[in-house]
Predict the structure.
Amino acid sequence: MINIDFNSSLKNEIKDLSNNRKDIESCGLIYFDEKKLKFNIYSCKNIAFDKKNFFSISSLEYLKCSQLGKIVACFHSHNNDNNEFSEIDMLNSNKHNITFILYNIKNDIFNMYYPNTYKNKYIGRPYITEVSDCFSLAIDYYKKELNVSIYCPKEIAYPKNLKDINSIYEDFFEKQNFIKLDKNTPFKKHDAFFMLFPNVSEVYATHCAMNIGNNTILHHPYNSFSCVNIYDDFYRKHTKYIVRHRSMI
């Protein structure tokens, strides 16, 4: 990985790009031109569904930039009091092995995140029914984050016949001092989104995802690895209700 020379010229260019579009999160890449031995800014279009609070760069623009030189950093802006990187920012930094740069327009400060300095203990778990799935992830998460134990008898949580599946909330979470909220309730960090997928059950929510802040969820999809995703329209559509521990009220 090339160490970036984050000089005043680059900073001023990022500031100008960000201040020209204060209504959205501006974003782009920094690449190293090996012929001219110079770091350059490559401004990108924000293609996120909610451009005011998130940013996303298309794979095509990433490819075009990589053809100009070695990509060494990704930058984006915030126009609020949040000076911190999101979970997805840090994961993408590690995934692409590039530095992430955040410019806060409101506070006029820069923050930098370097790859391989962060590891999430919940992400990347393989899917194994009754051992490592969305329910076991929730149990582990609430125990470690809120010191809340959720009792889980396997014969009830994992019925042999899917027709016998019951409400995860009513069977387990309600007994551990959680309350059920309407799906349109303003959510908080550590809330759980309970989702209904008709191919599994047409009545009960059978998948849960934890809100870890910045409109981001931690969950364990079926037959996949545990991961972090933006809580977008797809997940909102399938959310049946929200669950919150009483200590968070």
In short: The first strand starts at residue 27 and ends at 33. The chain has a mean pLDDT of 87.
